[in-house]
């Protein structure tokens, strides 16, 4: 070649990793990327790490006692979000279900005729950790029944289910009525229940002057011509004129009527409720010319029937409510009486239950709503018209928590019939309901884990594809 200049062979690229150690470097890079991805990916409320659940380390049913159960000081306004410093400080247990819970009706679901339904005891054990996943699930009780204090009802249910039930996880039909004690500070009529129990409940709620039908009959026996007070009833009933310092009953004004529990004497209770509904502004033994001056009337629930010991359902408070409204129209020449009801299926009762459940999750299980949001509540009931209807209505209204309705065949619902309000699922017993809910949550948890794994793997492969390994050879 005559020319002194010639093409030079380009030098090879600088080499930072020897060929023999390439696999090791790749492995190191992969591990580093996995660490980066695990720190970069946001964790949403629905993607909180799943507890390490296994059947081998499943805890036994915890020994519950009154000393280790935290009961809210008041249920007047249950905390929407209880104040707990941190999950660590509150002793949060990874084996607690942090995103779902259960709520139960009682009669026809857990108890019938005062005796526990056999599967109910086993269902409670499953919720308390005796399941293949070793997970314990928070739960509350929401019943339309009443007539006793929440503490007494909890004592009864504790014996029936063979565990300790706290008032902090219990709502009966008249529990929300305590929120009206500050509104009606004068005289109120309380109807229903055995003896003086409902008066005692109302006074514990904060009502200042509680009058019963027995008090009125004692003051004027002609009020209920077919009802004669027993000696005990006469003794327990109060002297209204002396107590109020008045000379005649018309000086006593009833601000509101509360039917706390099922009536023990429908005829006399009906007569007295109608008398006051037709009165001049709630004044006893008066009559309004317009029949539009009576005080408000509240029923703790509106169940027409309920499941008792008898093979067929029995009439409940809802039947009395309808009779009061119908007879009022008949005796007033067509006037309409509007009454109010708490309990199921009213959405306000389910909203009250949501607040109570959030508080119970925090005080008992260390689950702060802001950090461990409640995704699903499984409500188990036996009455389509109240349990299922109310649950579905709450689910439609709730923005953050799904209410999942489960109907059992052990109570009011008659197997083989078409329920007036359709549940999400129909099962045989409460044990089947509990197993269904837990299995459903475990499937959802596995599906979310698979999605996270796929997302993590996709991000890892994308970053690995961008790695440039310079080859010096």
UniProtKB/TrEMBL annotation:
Chain segments carrying region Disordered: 38-67, 442-461
Low complexity: bias regions: 45-67
InterPro entries assigned to the protein according to its UniProt record, in alphabetical order: CDP-alcohol_PTase-I, HAD-like_sf, HAD-SF_hydro_IIA, HAD-SF_hydro_IIA_CECR5, HAD_sf
NCBIfam families, per database record: CECR5, HAD-SF-IIA
Protein known as: Phosphatidyl synthase
High-level lineage: Eukaryota, Fungi, Dikarya, Ascomycota, Pezizomycotina
């Amino acid at each position: 070649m005559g020319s002194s200049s010639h093409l030079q062979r380009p030098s090879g690229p600088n080499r930072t990793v020897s060929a023999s150690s390439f696999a090791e470097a790749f492995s190191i890079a992969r591990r580093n990327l996995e660490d980066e991805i695990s720190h970069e990916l946001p964790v949403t409320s629905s993607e909180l790490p799943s507890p390490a659940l296994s059947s081998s380390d499943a805890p036994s049913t915890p020994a519950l006692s009154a000393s280790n159960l935290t009961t809210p000081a008041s249920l007047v306004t249950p905390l929407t979000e209880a104040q707990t410093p941190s999950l660590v400080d509150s002793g949060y247990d990874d084996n607690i279900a942090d995103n779902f819970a259960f709520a139960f009706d009682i009669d026809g679901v857990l108890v019938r005729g005062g005796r526990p339904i056999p599967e109910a005891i086993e269902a409670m054990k499953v919720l308390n950790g005796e399941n293949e996943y070793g997970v314990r699930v928070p739960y509350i009780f929401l019943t339309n029944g009443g007539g006793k204090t929440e503490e007494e009802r909890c004592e009864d249910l504790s014996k029936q289910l063979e565990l300790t039930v706290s008032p902090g996880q219990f709502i009966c039909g008249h529990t929300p009525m305590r929120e009206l004690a500050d509104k009606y500070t004068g005289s109120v009529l309380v109807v229903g229940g055995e003896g003086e129990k409902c008066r005692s409940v109302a006074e514990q709620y904060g009502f200042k002057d509680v009058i019963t039908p027995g008090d009125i009959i004692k003051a004027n026996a002609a009020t209920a011509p077919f009802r004669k007070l027993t000696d005990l009833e006469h003794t327990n009933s109060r002297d209204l004129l002396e107590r109020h310092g008045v000379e005649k009953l018309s000086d006593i004004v009833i601000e509101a009527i509360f039917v706390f529990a099922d009536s023990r004497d429908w005829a006399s209770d009906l007569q007295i409720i109608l008398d006051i509904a037709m009165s001049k502004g709630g004044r006893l033994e008066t009559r309004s010319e317009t029949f539009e001056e009576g005080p408000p009337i509240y029923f703790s629930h509106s169940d027409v029937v309920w499941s008792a010991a008898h093979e067929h359902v029995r009439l409940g408070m809802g039947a009395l409510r309808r009779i009061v409204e119908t007879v009022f129209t008949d005796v007033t020449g067509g006037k309409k009486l509007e009454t109010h009801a708490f309990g199921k299926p009213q959405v306000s009762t389910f909203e009250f239950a949501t607040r109570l459940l959030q508080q119970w999750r925090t005080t008992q299980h260390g689950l702060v709503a802001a950090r461990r949001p409640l995704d699903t509540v499984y409500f188990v009931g036996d009455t389509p018209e109240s349990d299922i209807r109310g649950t579905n209505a709450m689910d439609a209204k709730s923005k953050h928590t799904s209410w999942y309705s489960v109907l059992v065949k052990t109570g009011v619902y008659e197997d083989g019939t078409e329920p007036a309000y359709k549940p999400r699922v129909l099962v045989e017993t409460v044990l089947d309901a509990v197993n269904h809910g837990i299995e459903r949550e475990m499937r959802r948890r596995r599906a979310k884990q698979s999605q996270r794994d796929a997302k993590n793997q996709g991000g890892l492969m994308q970053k690995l594809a961008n790695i440039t390994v310079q080859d010096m050879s």
